Amino acid sequence: MECDPVEDPHEPQHSVTKSASAASNNTVIPELTLLLTGDRNSIEIGTKNILLDHDEQRNVEQFSAKLYDLCGRHISVINMLGHPNIDRVPLNQGIHAFLLLVPYGRHNSHYKSRVQLLEKTFGRGFLSYVMTVVTHESNEKCEGALADLKANSSFAEKRYHTCTRTMTDEKEIVSLLEKIDVMVSENDHQSYSRLMCVQNKDQKEHLDHNSYKEERVGTEEEMEISTEVTSGPSETKSKEEEIEISTDVTSGPSETKGKEEEIEISTEVTSGPSEIKGKGTVDVEKEIETLLSRLHLQDKLQQKLSPADFLKIGPPVKPSNDTCEKELAYTFLQKLLALDYRARHILVKQESPEVSHPQSAPVSDSTDTDDSDSDEFFNTDEDSDQSKQTHAHPMDVQMAVFHCSDSFLKQDMIKKLSQCQYALPLLVPDPVTMDIECPLWTLRQIIKTWKVTEIKDKDTITMKSMPICKAETPMVSFFRLGSLSQSKSHLMNTLINDRHSTFFHRNCKGSTKSRHLMDGVAEIAWYFPAGNPNDSFTDCIAFCNLHGDALTTEKQREILIDKSSVNVIFVPTLGRTQKNTAVLSALHKSTKPLIILVADKDCGGVEKKPGKYIVGLKERSQSDVAEELKMIIKKTLSGPHTSFQLESMSKVSGVRVDEDDPVCQKGKSAAMKILNLLQGMDISKIKHKFLPCQGNLWHEWCRIKKELYHLQGNIEKEKSQKEQALTQIRQEQCSVSHTELMKSFTESLLSLPSTDKEYFLKWMQILIDALSTDDLASILQSYDEKWSEVLALKRKHDKSPLLDSKQNELEQISKKLQSATFGLEHIFREMGQIYEAHKSQKKQTHNRQTDWSKYPELAADLMISGHPMELMDGDAGYAPLTWISSVLEEVIRKLGDQTVFVLSVLGVQSSGKSTMLNAMFGLQFAVSAGRCTKGAFMQLIKVSEEIRNYLKLKFNYFLVVDTEGLRALELASNTTTHHDNELATFVVGLGNITLINIFGENPAEMQDVLQIVVQAFMRMKKVKLSPSCVFVHQNVSDIGATEKNMDGKRRLQEKLDDMAQLAAKEEVCDVKCFSDVIAFDVQKDVKYFSQLWEGSPPMAPPNPRYSENVQELKHIILSKASQSSGITLSYFKSKIQDLWNALMNEQFVFSFKNTLEIAVYRKLEVQYATWTWTLRSNMLTIENQLYTRIENGKLDRVENSYLFTEMSKTFEEIKKDMNLYFEDKRDKDMLVQWRGRFEQKIKEFHEEQVKGVKKTLDEVIQQKKARKELDDKKTEFENKLLQKSKELAHRLKDKAKEEELKSQFNTVWGELVRELSAGIKPIEDINLKEDQKSVLNELGFEWGLIKECKDSNRYQDLLNLQSYSDYVNQKKQRDLSEESHQSHESKKENKDTGKQGTNVFKSAFNYFKQVTGISPTTQQKGNSDLSHEQIRSFISQVEQQSLKKIQTKPVATRGYRSTYLQEMAQNVQTKVTEFESQKPYALRKEFTVDLSLYVFDRAGRWLSQSHETYRKNNDALTYLESKKDQYYSIFRSFWKGNSSAVVFGEMICENLKVSAVEAVCNKTAIDLAGEMRCSFPAFSGNRLNLEKHVLKSLAEKEDFKSFITYIRDPRSQAEYFIKDEVHKYMFKEQSHKAQNILKNNVDDISEFVSKALFTATQEVKTQKGGTDMWMEQFSSLLKDKLTLGTISCQNFRDINNFDFLKEEIEKGLVPIKTEMSRLSLDKMKDFRLQPDQILIDQLCRCCWVTCPFCAAVCTNTLEDHSPDDHNVPFHRSASVNGWHYRNTVEMSVYFCTTNVSSTNSFYLDGVSEVSVPFKQYRTAGPRFANWRITPDESKLTYWTWFVCRFQQELENYYGWKFEGRGEIPSQWRTHTKQQAIESLDEMYSE
Hints:
Number of strands: 38
Structural class: alpha/beta
Number of helices: 61
Shape: flat
Strand content: 5-15%
Low-confidence stretches: 1-26, 202-278, 358-370, 380-387, 844-849, 969-974, 1371-1417
Radius of gyration: 50 Å
């Protein structure tokens, strides 16, 4: 069919035939044929691409319709972009131009690599046909590209072009075609053809189509039936053979080879000695390059794969049938790292018809006759399908990955191959240089354990464990000379493990006929006996297999023959050939045993001479041959034989050993320097000598530290002693920390580059393991033997001393085992202890090599690179918190505060936890039988971008926590449960999800684990942590039985529910089932696992189903993780601290303190303060405006709706800000718990502000209405006063002198005032003192008593009296006893109020001591103390109630009434009576009188101020007197002859002056308060911040009285502090700033008045109004900010020049502005708003509840923070609040946080006989129940300093002594005032 793109360019493009028929009439012959080669990403394929609009890689030509449209030419384009098989280019038709497309930026490297490949394929002659095209982005310029390419000798500038990647620019394409035409012309219009290619290539082989049908010769795996053909000198022979027929024909030395194949039939050709040769070097390289390209590893020979490429959470492993070839290598590694030995059996899905699979044969679609079918069936000619490329050989995949991996990944890979029981590479030819390499380094980490059975004594079994590199074992090597049908590898597998393909062979799944990387590879595997009778061999034996024909791999053959103990040779026949003869003769003469297996002989094993055997293979079963071989090998090895050790390979000449690399040797050298220190030492003594910090010193430190949480007796003294002991231990650790080992180790870590450091650490691990494994095996065997003896005695119920002796011996072995356990983790543990010790001592070494401060950074680098880091020391049972925190801080510094998902695992000992994690994520947690993991380790794993985007994960890393097993046998029984509970709680608390690993189906074991786990989850629920869990049930026998699994799940659910109910009783929690504890779905959250091994170790491979189960579990975890936000590393760090600190206490739930949550809450409090201040300041501004309007008479009613409307904008902005704050991703999950409460609190605050302002303004309106009568008269007064002043001025004008004016004015003024105020009664001043006396007398108190109380002034400081004993009547006490021993005390009066004695209460003590007999062992607030406190609290309550009530009275609007005092006094009397009725003592009359006077005194100031306000607003005479100076000024102005405008202007200025000063001062008060709240440190934070600064201020002043005020009434002290700080700020520290604020407000007011003047004047002029209109306009403009007062316009209506009036007013305002600018800030106190009061209202609106023990103030910013408990970061010594021991004078110095973790008790009040344990303090009543006091061994230095500094004052104040149990610990006295102040920063950081 002819293609005509012009007619229809959208028709499908047609192939151009390349055969001779191409010239037929039906086919269009292209004018040009272009072949595109290079990088596929160099251009963008698409419909608009002119050159290429399809992305298919084809070796056929396609016409380009767009090129035809462009130039009208038939141009054919072959797309080979990115095609790995460039040699498949169709050259029959000929290529006019090779377009080499390279991307700009990588143009040089791409050009070099592609030209090199093309040269290898086509020869150099093709270069004249190459056009180099550099592609670029549209916005790029290819500057420098031409210069770069010119450096290449093969490059020609005239064959160079650039264009955009899209190839849509017609000009660029036309230009390219022109250059191509020139190149074609230069080539004489010839195209590059196959003939030219053959002529150009300097090689002996032809690359015609038939060459692809040749197969590699001599591989045993590629054939089922083999025929050897020997041909004569000049002929080619081939023989067709049938199944199971083998013919051996001998050929001459120079005959050629031939090979034909049929289905299941393979023919091999053996040539003479001189013709044995492989393919050419170029051919081999090409095959390998093609293989790597197919596997997508083409770049990895240079840029090696590393563990980092696989140590990350990536997409799940694809199923075999869904894996394409380019993913094969990665899938292989993924499966291998997951311990799936089927990694070698991956089926590749067929993506291209060119790739064939041997598992399926092509089906013919012929429709011929039966005869044709028969002919077709028996036709042995290869059809086109047989030329297709087969899939990659499994061993080629393995070796390709091996060659493309760096040394660390090779190690991991070989270790996993070993675990999968596969053979390992021993000798490996380099695929490029063909040098032989021994990968000794990759084998270093393999440690094997086996049991040797002594031949002489069958009962003697010795366990051996050692690195396989050091094992000296016999080695049996297997070789093949020539080709034969039997599989050598298959037979070897039968010898080692007949159930597993240790060596890959031809019958293995996935085997193909061609392979490229295995010939010449020698693999090694070991047989490890289990100590059983049916072991094949009694000791470990190495088996080595040389792949391929040993005749062609001479070097490997000779090496192995030399190293072997026994050589086994496979030969097709014993017929002599030159090569065979030489090899067999040499072996026959050797002294080493030789076994020859002959394919064409059917004889059994025959020993021809000693040690020389011949075994026939013909017509014999493989099992028979294997058994015979075993017998021969056993026999030969029973005598003297050589041994093989892997390490000896390093001495073999001609073999390159991988660990000889300089970088590897450098690491080894550094490691050997350290290991040389340990040589010859007893392994159990190494840690004691070289790692002293983590031994007894660390264990003792941990023991003492734990005891700090369980103190008894004299707590503070004991605590101080223990803290000193801890300090001493740390000092000792510092002194012994500089061991040679640690010095060398840290020096290497600090100095080595990263790669060298990796080698160093690997070598350290390898060498340490080698040092300890054998000794450990010996100790373990001794332990096993001794344990067996103990069990035997126990079974006999033998309780003799022998049993005790054996148990003691067992214990000693156990200790030795612990001492002998030595690994790299112990060195890191030592680093942690050195760091913690020096950190605690705050000593910085000057020695760089031992710079401990850099240790966390070193550990962080290792953790980031994937090394496990110890989280909890399993030997000491303690977490080194300082070290862990510092390491994580360094990780955060390096990575940022990344979000992580924490996965933890928990389960019984040796249940496969670490193995499961390793298989799941490719980790390197230590695994072995017994207690493999001690303590807990954490490892960081990156989440790949691919999986993160796919699952929409919200975190970047997994953090995996692996733990030691529960129910450890070596732990003492009495500590096992507690230890397990601690571990479980710790691990469950840390994890976002916890894997609960259950091993086996033992119900008893399951129940123990479930009980521990359920209790841990219940604790998390109670402390508001919500992890999830998945139960992993390992080693289940029949996981395929669905019904059985359902039954198992049901039983597990029942067990969990039972355990939940049991745990609920212990944790005091209302729980009915496990689902009440955490979200748990038994159908989804339980996973059953197959057993790990297929058979019995040590030769059993892992079960593939186990690997599948692991991957399924990984999918479940990722699915759950996708629903989690994870946690930040900083939160994880604080979580470790919080959980561990709480775990140290007996009551975890009450002890847990979420540090990060507290920090987030503190930040929220600061933000809340900002929001409330924004509302408050805005409301103050609105209040000011409305207040002025009311005063101006412009407003007589304020509606709530109006206030809400005015506030709406601000409130909406705050709600928006709140929403953004709570939606912050970082702390969103934590903030959500408080969101609703704070949103409600802001709403309530908003409503309260509106309500408060409305109330204030309503009162102003009421005041305005109350003085309406006076206001109505004011106009009349003003008119008369003005008129009289004017008349007097005119009368005296030019008649009186200025000196006489004042007296004349005074005379007239007096008459005028009398006239105006006639009949108006003046409001008198009040006499509060007399009213107080009268009111008390009316209540029945004697005048004498009242006078005595009044004169003593004792009432003024009633709240802060040290003792209230003088007020107490003993009558109730006497009634309790018939004796009257206290009567003398009761009659005695103590007039000295400063005396500290407590006579009455001391008598009460004596009485109670006699009656109750309570011994002085329990702390209490003593009778006097507690009663003093109760009375003081009562006084405070009465004061607050009375003030609150009196302030509701309308004194400011209606004036003072004496009945107000009467109500107060009556209320006091009633409250005193109620108080007395609840107490065991009575209060004397003096108390009621003093309390009444005290309340009167507190209320007096407010009453006086309010009454003065009333008098000022309502007394006419007062008003008139206030106007005298103003009207004298008016009078003088008229007298001087000034016009009405001038006088009117003066009056306005005078009124504005008063109003402006008030406005400026009120605005300055708001601004100053706002400035201080934002910038002043004490006021810019939350409640806790204010507390810190109050305490700092108290410490700096060192005034005991102020301290007592703070302790007794913290709010009043805080208010005093605020007032004091505001005063200092305004008048001292920031007076210039305060003055500037005032000046700015003066400027604002002046500008405001000027604008109002201008606007009013312009308006009146426009409307031609008069004075009244001008005044109305002006006052209206001022109404929101200024008041003008009463100005009558009646006498100024003659004014008509308002510009002049404006000028006069402006002139008058100048001195006013100047005067206001000089205004003293002190003037502010005369006005309505005060900055200190605004700040008090803002900052003191919080919680002021004090701790019932130490009087510490709750620091919550919210006044009502229910349901949260009251709490403080640090409590105080109980002595601060006067606690002491009952019936003694001993003060209690204990801190609350110490008490609640002790066994001490306290009495509820001074006379109670019931004591309450401090641990149960919440049960003591409401005062105690709402306080959260967490047990904590820390204390604030501030309060220890306070107690020491004011010891004498405290003793005098409370009447107790710091002696006996109350003696102040000596350590407290070391604290200075500066340290005390600095310690307050700790409080704020909490």
